[in-house]
Amino acid sequence: MKRLDQVLAADGVNAELELVIKDVMVACKDIAYKLSQGELAGILGATEDENVQGETQKMLDVISNDLLKDILVANPYVRGVGSEEEDYTIAANSDGKYLVTFDPLDGSSNIDVNLSVGTIFSVLEAQDDTAGDNQEVFLQTGRKQVAAGYVLYGPSSLLVMTTGKGVNLFTLDTNIGEFVLTKEALQIPEDTAEFAINMSNQRFWEPEMKQYIDDCLQGEEGPLGKRYNMRWVASMVAEVHRILIRGGIFMYPYDSRDPSKAGKLRLMYEGNPMSMIVEQAGGASSTGRMDIMDVQPEGIHDRVPVVLGSKNEVAKVVAYHK
Ligand SMILES: O=P(O)(O)OC[C@H]1O[C@](O)(COP(=O)(O)O)[C@@H](O)[C@@H]1O
Ligand SMILES: [Mg+2]
Ligand SMILES: [Mg+2]
């Protein structure tokens, strides 16, 4: 079986980018191990701190963030890093050209109940010599990503990633401590009858989203003419992974709970990397009104409404917004 480094080399990834990706994986393997120890390692539960988004940090949010940050800041090819758990971007090496943003632990409300969580990462190239502690150098659209991926910590730990040449799935072989290729060229089915959305926010959605979900719920008798199933894991990584394997549509739309926020999910380390993966696997990804990867970020923690998954179903949701 092929190892991650062999696949990256075959895809023509240069040695510098390969080392950046490998360092992300060193941290992810450590996170996978810590998660598998759970209560035994005494690292479950919350800290007393909040992140810049005003969310209480779990102990594992902080530990995962430190693992990724420390290894990447020491990498000679990394200019800077940006994280959900860091208020500001952090400078690494002024000669490095890669910028890495990450959500160190996604779906963190699942940690204490022993359900799936993940790590999401995105890699951009610096376009000038701006230092990594100036967020301006990061503010590029998702189209500029040179690599994106996630690690899903579930019954097995999986890496799903792309460098723009399709999407590959690797499984962590804990015997050898390596991610090995277990599925090549993932393709999302174009049609689906399975949606994922947090229905408890229904009354706060825009009318377009309310209408689409109302129509889904009418099943065969409704305008969409099919009976839908629903899933909600509350972990975007697990949700996107299910969609990559069997199709589906995932939505975290704009809602009016806090009108100043464009959505719950963050553009640069949730929306963009997941959009690159989904598009590379033949799916689609939109805010409902434009492609997520065309949204120009204005800040490292910008939020974005997210609608992604099976191409034809995403097109239907976009049509409701026209
Ligand atoms: O708690 P809710 O509203 O169901 O939101 C769940 C969503 O929030 C997230 O957990 C946000 O990510 P973080 O856990 O990294 O903050 C997504 O993974 C998930 O899709
Ligand atoms: Mg997240
Ligand atoms: Mg997170």
TrEMBL record:
Homotetramer. It is found in: Cytoplasm. Substrate binds at residues 106-109, 198, 264. It comes from Thiomicrorhabdus lithotrophica. Mg(2+) 1 binds at residues 84, 103, 105. Its cofactor is Mg(2+). It catalyses: beta-D-fructose 1,6-bisphosphate + H2O = beta-D-fructose 6-phosphate + phosphate. The keyword Nuclease does not apply. PANTHER family: FRUCTOSE-1,6-BISPHOSPHATASE-RELATED (PTHR11556), SEDOHEPTULOSE-1,7-BISPHOSPHATASE, CHLOROPLASTIC (PTHR11556:SF35). Keywords: Carbohydrate metabolism, Cytoplasm, Hydrolase, Magnesium, Metal-binding. Pathway: Carbohydrate biosynthesis. Coiled coil: none annotated. Its EC number is 3.1.3.11. Gene3D superfamilies: 3.40.190.80, Fructose-1,6-Bisphosphatase, subunit A, domain 1. One of its GO terms (molecular function) is fructose 1,6-bisphosphate 1-phosphatase activity. Binds 2 magnesium ions per subunit. The gene is fbp. This is Fructose-1,6-bisphosphatase class 1. Mg(2+) 2 binds at residues 103, 106, 270. Residues 13-184 form the Fructose-1-6-bisphosphatase class I N-terminal domain.
